[in-house]
């Protein structure tokens, strides 16, 4: 299976950082793939988001391995990982942490919440109350927590991987647009193929493969690589392409709500990571095309006509992608 | 528009009228126009009425037909409407028309028969045109009958037709087409729709642009139709009608000509073909014309050739008896060998009078009194020994003592007898000897200040309401060619009781090294006068460039004119006297004209070469237009490239258009990698070609998207490699097309043309917007 990480493309430019990045990314990919079988594209997008320092929203029916993916990705990196099971009675302070009065020292002492980890897995995020969900806002966007007027820096790298179930809507609080916008990408797992499922039954019959998963890298390495990704070259014409694409979502009659400027920003960041994963030191339109659906689909709202036609926003985005001309000349 | 469709009916009638307009050049007088107009109007009115009442097409056409026949009968046969008289009267008119056609060349008098025929033919064509263009709504098809009517005039007129006739007809026909096209457009919608919004200017100027483009195309086509023939080498306008010499398929390397047995004095000289007819060598330094036959009988503007009387079988190289009347005179014998002969049997062109002949295997006869051989089959080569009178040859006796000559050689044409007699009396004195009279007449005709040599005749003069006969017309207009000059001399001599006849043959032709070459255009006619002791003697009254040399005994000098004198010069004949460059060394008028003729001749042949060259060059340039346009379009981005990146883009563009020319369409996908996928699928590439394509695509990609610090690269070698692969696998037809008519070139030319063509439409559009 073509993963995109085992690409035949030899890196043409760039030095050791890119080579290291490819090696590390390939290791993570292999590690995660040993747990999540037959989902190379999904894993790849997840790794891309990790390197772009974004947050990932995994949305699918129960039992396809959403949580497994999140945990496997977290486990493959040697770093603190926290898992939060979102429930209606979960309080914001459970996430951010709370100041507790210490009787001994007679001072307020900050007890960090679940958010203080490099990778936070938020399970069934739409089951928590909006109040709790919004507690995630500041953390995800700014990488910091403010409790009782004191601001605490979060760890770097910091990645939130939230899962949600689109089927059981009773007693849930769908994520508001603002919060959805903070996730860099949304992916769906989808059902595994027949052979992949058969393999899964074989290997997962005994103990969970998650337990045998050994970390392949550590947080500082990931952080360093992520910082390198931001230096990749995106030519002016390519940046224009992204602006054109995002602008088209705003003017399209098939969409009620177009993509935000933040979406454009995150699309560029994700594209850089995607290019880095292929060992390129510059972004090409293919990078953008590969990420338009995961990065933009959850940010835009379909119009009534689109909904009536049972078209997903991803379909609409693919149409737009065909219409927007690719920049040819270097500007 | 009403059902009668008056506008289209009117256009059809006008088109027919315009098509028959050049008939004016064929006829003297306009008496035919009124009845034709009347009947055209009748046809149009019947057509409109028929359509207005909704009669079927066939019925309308039948009614028009009946109207035309009835109208013609009423106009021309109102005195003979009784059923017993009618057929006879119609027959009389037709006979009259036929007679006029056979007797007169254009312009002919408008006799009742001709007017009758015209008032029948033109309205009948009008019925056809009306039926096609209005009834059947096929105005394009109506061009056929219009063309037929037009050709009736063009093929019969002696002179090139004024282009105005063509332009008028083309304009009328295009108007019919345009009207028909508009009708067709209007019929597209079956119900009438009204716009609720006010009519926009674009709506109106959309149609305006459409029709302005149509006007532009129409005008351009007509202009081209006039200009292109003018700039192309073309056959003489009278090529289709037969003339003095008739072309056929020849044996050897000469074309075959035959002689018609009639010579119409009123015809313009028709055959201007440069086809060689004869090739010969001769011992004569100044060869005489080659004689083919003689004509004594003149009637109604025509010469009819003499019936050969008793003939004797000829034996090769046996000396023939002297012709009638030739006594003991100082003669020189010369020998002429004809190596290629295109004159059809029984005529054989020979220098005259023949002393002995060798026709090879061909059997031949001769007329004892004329020393003129005739052959049963066309000999390819033959030898003739002939005699030539010396400069001092003079007649020795009077006509009274001479043996009887045929009486018709003294008969003056009664139509012109008075004028001829008057003219001759003004030239000669009564006490001159006959020979002196003949030389005086010859010199009078040769005077260039008096007569103009021209292959084109002046229009027939009308005196006292009647057109002049051809001889009088020549004496009045003083313009003509050898036939007119010779005929005039024959008649003038006959009026002085000197027997005379017309000889027809060829000028000596052009010297071509040792041999002479005679072309069809060298056909010539000259008078032969009978003198006791001399027999039938050649004179040369035709002045100028297209005439034989004046015989020495008749005042000519053998040294003044070279053998090449007489070559025809068609283009310059009308302006011969004014354009002939004076040659300082040649004192006489004769040589000056000869020199002029020679220089014009060389100009003529070189101009033909130039024309051919020009056509070739234009053709080659035309063939180059598309490839050059393709190259220009292909390398446009490359030329404009400012830096390395744009250079790579330009090279990629050139590669794409070259592949397109080789039949690999450019990719619909847009990124370099999509292009690579596309070309991998659609172009037949080998392993190396694929690798080159991969490299080229990566180069392009890097040039487009990588950081500008990377050094610029070129994909030229890779492009060459790819093209070599694709070209190697393409069929030869694809390769040829890519070379000669590449698709990108055609597109470039087409877009250029479209830009030019749409210019007037855009202009209209702009004007409409700013004005409205």
Automatic annotation (TrEMBL), chain A:
Gene3D superfamilies, per the entry: Magnesium chelatase subunit I, C-Terminal domain, P-loop containing nucleotide triphosphate hydrolases
InterPro entries hit by this protein: ATPase_AAA-3, CbbQ/NirQ/NorQ/GpvN, ChlI/MoxR_AAA_lid, P-loop_NTPase
PANTHER family linked: METHANOL DEHYDROGENASE REGULATOR (PTHR42759:SF5), MOXR FAMILY PROTEIN (PTHR42759)
Domain ATPase AAA-3 stretches: 55-184
Native source organism of the sequence: Luteipulveratus flavus
Ranges in a coiled coil: none
Signal peptide range: none
SUPFAM superfamilies tied to this protein: P-loop containing nucleoside triphosphate hydrolases
Protein name, entry field: MoxR family ATPase
Residues covered by the ChlI/MoxR AAA lid domain: 249-319
TrEMBL record, chain B:
Pfam families linked: TgpA_N, Transglut_core
Biased composition annotated in UniProt, kind: Basic and acidic residues: 304-316
UniProt keyword terms in alphabetical order: Membrane, Transmembrane, Transmembrane helix
Feature: compositional bias, Low complexity: 575-592
InterPro entries named among the record's database cross-references: Bact_TGase-like, Papain-like_cys_pep_sf, TgpA_N, Transglutaminase-like
Regions crossing the membrane: 35-54, 110-129, 164-185, 205-232, 610-630
UniProt name for this protein: DUF3488 and transglutaminase-like domain-containing protein
Organism: Luteipulveratus flavus
């Amino acid at each position: 299976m073509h993963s995109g990480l085992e690409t035949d493309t030899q890196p043409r430019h760039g030095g050791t950082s890119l080579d290291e990045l490819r090696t590390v990314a390939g290791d993570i990919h292999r590690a995660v793939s040993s747990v999540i079988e037959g989902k190379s594209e999904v894993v790849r997008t997840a790794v891309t988001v990790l390197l772009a320092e974004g947050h990932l929203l995994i949305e699918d029916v129960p039992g396809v391995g959403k949580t497994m993916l999140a945990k496997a990705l977290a486990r493959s990196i040697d770093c603190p990982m926290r898992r939060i099971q979102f429930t209606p009675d979960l309080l914001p302070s459970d996430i951010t942490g709370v100041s507790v009065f210490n009787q001994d020292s007679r001072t307020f002492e900050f007890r960090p919440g679940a958010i203080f980890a490099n990778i936070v897995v938020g399970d069934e995020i739409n089951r928590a109350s909006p109040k709790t969900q919004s507690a995630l806002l500041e953390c995800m966007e700014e990488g910091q927590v403010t409790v009782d007027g004191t601001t605490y820096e979060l760890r770097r790298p910091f990645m939130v991987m939230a899962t949600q179930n689109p089927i059981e809507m009773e007693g849930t609080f769908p994520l508001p647009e603002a919060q959805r916008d903070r996730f860099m990408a949304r992916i769906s797992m989808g059902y595994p193929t027949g052979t992949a499922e058969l393999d899964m039954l074989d290997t997962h019959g005994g103990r969970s493969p998650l337990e045998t998963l050994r970390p392949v890298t550590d947080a500082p390495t990931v952080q360093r690589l992520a910082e390198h990704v931001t230096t990749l070259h995106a030519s002016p014409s390519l940046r224009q392409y992204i602006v054109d694409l995002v602008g088209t979502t705003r003017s399209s009659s098939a969409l009620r709500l177009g993509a935000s400027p933040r979406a454009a920003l995150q699309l560029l960041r994700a594209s850089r990571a995607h290019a880095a994963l292929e060992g390129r030191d510059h972004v090409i339109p293919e990078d953008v095309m590969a990420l338009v659906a995961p990065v933009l689909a959850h940010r835009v709202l379909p119009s009534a006509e689109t909904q009536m036609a049972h078209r997903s926003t991803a379909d609409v985005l693919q149409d737009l992608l065909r219409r927007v001309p690719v920049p040819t000349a270097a500007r | 528009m009403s059902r009668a469709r008056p506008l289209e009916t009117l256009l059809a009638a006008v088109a027919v009228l315009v098509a028959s307009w050049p008939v004016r050049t064929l006829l003297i007088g306009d008496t035919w126009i009124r009845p034709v107009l009347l009947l055209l109007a009748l046809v149009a009115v019947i057509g409109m009425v028929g359509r207005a009442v909704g009669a079927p097409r066939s019925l309308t056409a039948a009614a028009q037909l009946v109207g035309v026949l009835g109208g013609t009968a009423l106009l021309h046969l109102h005195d003979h409407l009784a059923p017993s008289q009618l057929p006879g009267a119609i027959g009389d008119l037709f006979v009259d028309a036929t007679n006029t056609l056979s007797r007169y060349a254009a312009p002919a008098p408008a006799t009742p028969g001709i007017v009758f025929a015209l008032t029948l033919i033109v309205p009948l064509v009008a019925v056809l045109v009306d039926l096609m263009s209005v009834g059947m709504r096929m105005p394009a098809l109506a061009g056929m009958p219009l063309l037929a009517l037009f050709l009736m005039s063009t093929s019969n007129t002696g002179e090139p037709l004024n282009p105005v006739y063509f332009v008028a007809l083309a304009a009328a026909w295009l108007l019919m087409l345009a009207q028909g096209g508009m009708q067709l457009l209007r019929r597209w919608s079956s119900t009438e729709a009204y716009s609720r919004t006010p009519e926009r200017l674009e709506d109106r100027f959309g149609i305006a642009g459409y029709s302005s483009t149509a006007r532009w195309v129409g005008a351009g086509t007509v202009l081209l139709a006039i200009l292109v023939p003018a700039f192309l080498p073309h056959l003489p306008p009278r090529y289709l009608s037969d003339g003095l010499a008739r072309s056929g398929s020849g044996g050897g390397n000469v074309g075959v000509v035959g002689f018609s047995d009639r010579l119409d004095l009123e015809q313009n000289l028709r055959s201007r073909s440069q086809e060689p007819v004869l090739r010969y060598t001769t011992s004569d330094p100044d060869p005489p014309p080659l004689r083919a036959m003689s004509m004594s009988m003149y009637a109604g503007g025509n010469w009819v050739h003499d019936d050969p009387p008793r003939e004797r079988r000829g034996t090769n190289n046996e000396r023939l008896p002297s012709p009638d009347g030739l006594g003991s005179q100082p003669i020189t014998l010369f020998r002429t060998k004809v190596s290629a002969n295109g004159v059809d049997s029984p005529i054989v062109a020979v220098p005259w009078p023949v002393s002995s002949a060798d026709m090879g295997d061909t059997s031949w006869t001769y007329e004892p009194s004329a020393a003129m051989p005739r052959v049963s089959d066309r000999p390819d080569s033959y030898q003739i020994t002939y005699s030539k009178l010396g400069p001092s040859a003079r007649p020795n006796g009077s006509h009274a003592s001479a043996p009887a000559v045929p009486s018709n050689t003294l008969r003056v044409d009664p139509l012109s007898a008075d004028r001829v007699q008057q003219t001759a009396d003004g030239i000669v004195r009564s006490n001159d000897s006959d020979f002196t009279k003949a030389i005086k007449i010859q010199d009078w005709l040769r005077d260039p200040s008096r007569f103009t040599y021209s292959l084109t005749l002046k229009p027939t003069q009308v005196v006292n309401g009647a057109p002049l006969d051809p001889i009088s017309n020549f004496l009045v207009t003083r313009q003509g060619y050898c036939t007119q000059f010779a005929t005039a001399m024959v008649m003038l001599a006959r009026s002085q009781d000197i027997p005379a006849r017309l000889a027809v043959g060829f000028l000596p032709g052009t010297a071509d090294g040792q041999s002479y070459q005679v072309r069809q255009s060298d056909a010539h006619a000259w008078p032969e006068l009978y003198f006791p002791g001399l027999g039938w003697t050649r004179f040369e009254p035709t002045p100028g460039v297209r005439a034989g040399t004046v015989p020495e005994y008749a005042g000519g000098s053998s040294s003044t004119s070279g053998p090449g004198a007489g070559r025809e010069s068609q283009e310059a004949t009308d302006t011969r006297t004014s354009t002939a460059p004076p040659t300082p060394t040649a004192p006489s008028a004769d040589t000056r004209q000869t020199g002029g003729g020679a220089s014009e001749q060389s100009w003529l042949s070189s101009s033909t070469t130039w024309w051919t060259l020009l056509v070739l060059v234009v053709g080659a340039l035309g063939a180059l237009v598309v490839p050059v346009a393709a190259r220009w379009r292909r390398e446009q981005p490359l030329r404009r490239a400012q830096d390395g990146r744009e250079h790579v883009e330009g090279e990629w563009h050139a590669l794409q258009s070259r592949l397109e020319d080789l039949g690999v369409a450019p990719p619909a996908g847009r990124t370099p990698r999509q292009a690579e996928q596309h070309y991998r699928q659609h172009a037949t590439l080998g392993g190396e070609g694929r690798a080159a394509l991969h490299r080229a695509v990566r180069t392009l990609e890097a040039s487009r998207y990588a950081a500008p610090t990377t050094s610029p690269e070129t994909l030229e070698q890779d492009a060459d490699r790819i093209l070599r692969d694709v070209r190697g696998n393409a069929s030869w037809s694809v390769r040829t097309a890519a070379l000669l008519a590449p698709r990108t070139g055609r597109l470039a030319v087409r877009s250029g043309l479209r830009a030019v063509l749409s210019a007037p439409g855009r202009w209209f559009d702009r004007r409409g917007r700013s004005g409205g």
